[in-house]
Specification:
The structure is a single chain. This protein is an alpha+beta fold. The mean pLDDT is about 95.
């Protein structure tokens, strides 16, 4: 089975441990546009890369926004806001 990468834009209040899914995409560039030049005292955004099976892509892309994100050991942090 072919493995692909998918990217998650996550939101987090700095004083809370929960990560919320804002957007899911196959394009890292698309997600980077959303957080370009973002800075806040109270919140952060993260872009996470996750390897998934090819047959799971559609399911992940259709995932509803603002669900709690469950991390996996294999997730890779791509970038985070200040």
């Amino acid at each position: 089975m072919t493995k692909l990468f998918i990217y998650y834009l996550l939101y987090k209040l700095k004083d809370n441990h929960r990560l919320w899914i804002v957007k899911t995409s196959e394009s890292l560039f698309e997600l980077n546009k959303h957080i370009k030049n973002f800075s806040s005292k109270y919140e952060k955004y993260y872009i996470i890369e996750r390897e998934i099976n090819e047959n799971e892509v559609e399911k992940e892309l259709e995932r509803k926004q603002f669900l709690i994100y469950k991390t996996k050991k294999t997730d890779k942090l791509i970038t985070e806001t200040k």
